[in-house]
Amino acid sequence: NMASFMHVAVSILLLFTLTSAQMRGDYSPPQDICNPNDGFGKYCPTTCGVADYLQRYKPDMDRELDQMEQDLEDLANLTRGAQDKVVYLRDSETQAQKQAPDTYIKKSTSMLDDILRFEKSILAQEDQIYQLQSILQANEKRITDLKQMSVQLDQMCKEPCKDTVEIQTVTGKDCQDIANKGGKVSGLYYVKPARAPEAFLVFTDQNSLYVFQRRDGSVDFNKKWIQYKEGFGYLSPDDRTEFWLGNEKIHLLSVQSSVPYVLRIEMVDWDGNKKYADYATFKLGPEVDAYRLTYSYYFGGDAGDAFDGHDFGDDPSDKFYTSHNGMQFSTPDKDNDKFHENCALQEGAGWWMNRCHAAHLNGKYYQGGKYTEKDTQNGYDNGIIWATWHSRWYSLKETTMKIIPINRISTDGQHSGAKQFGGLGDI
Ligand SMILES: [Ca+2]
User: Fold this and answer.
1) Could you read off the pLDDT of 230-287 as tens digits, one per residue?
2) What does the pLDDT look like over 85-97, one tens digit per residue?
3) 224 and 206 in contact (C-beta within 8 Å)?
């Protein structure tokens, strides 16, 4: 058992040596000056993506390994203690045997003492054996967990790291243009909106929609202005990865069309319930206006109008100060909100912050949904929030934000753009 345990421990250490070597080799630019064009849009993770992923796992794994090392040492100490006891018992026994024939009567008292000591030692040893067994069980569980993690890691690395990804050959100024030219399948297309300096990749489908945000917990959304501007995460041809397309691209897409766009927000909670909210005439302003969010009205949905703010019952001004229409975009390094401090910095995410929010889909990912002030760094509700559906202390499981030409919605029905969610799973 011990040998196999050591074997696993060594394998895991080896795994870390390999991954950290890879980090040194592949990952040179620090996170905040990540090259905006570093392969974003290909199926493989960007350098930023790989680094984020490893950085998320390494501290936990390091801690686990330290704990295991400590447990091993305790185990060794206990074994030594037990061995000492056995030696002592054996010595006492030998001595007793030697002395018994001659000095039976004289020694009988001390023999009785020895027997009492034996009994005590046996009890103590049983205790130690019990402790050792518990430690062993705890270790076995840890090893199983680590093995599982390592298998998942392996799977994760295998799947998205395809060398090639199918990018459709048809291009155009928007999805409608692409469809007109024969681009009929869902997938990744290059589009070049009217004012864009160069074409960029987006996911689009038969309904001519663009997906610009997807959450499933695999990517850290605590990013700076430049990253929210250029986009981060991973795009995939089956639209199942997590990303922020980038404010500049969302802006260019949202302002070029002659047909108004509807912003559609789709959400899934931890019980698998799905809800959505639509906003008519969605537009994102240019960078000089800090990518201001505007729409004309709540177009419908069953999730409620959280963008209009929410009365949390703390103050009559709650609803006004948690609305989002007309808000500029803020990031931890750029404060454009209506609060005397920086909402985006407090909550570690970029969003159209007011003072601060009733909707916050770029928030921190909390497994299981429910979280409390104690789970946060500074007591602020920083999860993935849609306050007109779940409380602000409930973080949603999956979200998607997409823009759809309004004619596609009215002709094809409310859920024409909706698609089955498929996350990367819980890691
Ligand atoms: Ca502020």
Assistant:
1) 999 988 888 888 999 999 999 999 998 778 899 999 999 999 999 999 999 999 999 9
2) 878 877 877 776 6
3) no
pLDDT in tens, 132-149: 888 888 888 888 888 888
CA of 350 to the centre of ligand 1 (A): 13
Output helix, strand, coil percentages for the chain, rounded to the nearest 5: 45, 15, 40
By the 8 A CB rule, do 361 and 352 touch? no
What residue has token string 């790291």?
A: 161
> How many whole angstroms from 328 Cα to the centroid of ligand 1?
11
Length of the chain: 427
Distance in Å, CA 283 to ligand 1 centroid = 23
| Ligand 1 geometric centre to CA of 305 (Å) | 24
Ligand 1 centroid to residue 337 C-alpha, Å: 5
Contact 242, 216 (CB under 8 A): yes
Tell me phi and psi for residue 397, to 5 degrees: -85, -45
Residue ranges covered by each domain of the chain: 2-158, 167-412
| pLDDT mean over 181-197 | 89
Could you tell me the distance, in angstroms and rounded to a whole number, from the CA of residue 217 to the centre of ligand 1? Answer: 27
CATH 3.90.215.10 fits 167-412, yes or no: yes
φ and ψ of 261, to 5 deg: -100, 145
Calculate how far, in angstroms, residue 318's C-alpha sits from the geometric centre of ligand 1: 16
| Angle ∠(320,354,314) on CA atoms, nearest 5 | 50
Kindly give the distance from the C-alpha atom of residue 341 to the centroid of ligand 1, in angstroms, as a whole number: 4
* pTM (predicted TM-score): 0.61
**Is the separation of the CB atoms in 330 and 349 below 8 Å?**
no
Tell me the angle at which helices 47-99 and 2-26 cross, rounded to the nearest 10 degrees: 160
Residue 183's pLDDT band (boundaries 50, 70, 90)?
confident
Question: Ligand 1 centroid vs 364 CA: distance in angstroms?
Answer: 20
Read off the pLDDT of each residue in 224-234 and give the average, rounded to a whole number.
Answer: 95
* Measured distance CA(206)–CA(189) in Å, rounded: 12
**Is it the case that residue 39 has pLDDT exceeding 50?**
no
Decide if pLDDT at 340 tops 80: yes
pLDDT for 158 equals 65
Q: How far is the CA of 356 from the centre of ligand 1 (A)?
A: 9
For the ranges 367-376, 386-395, 408-417, the lowest mean pLDDT is seen at 408-417
Q: What's the 181 CA to ligand 1 centre distance in angstroms?
A: 46
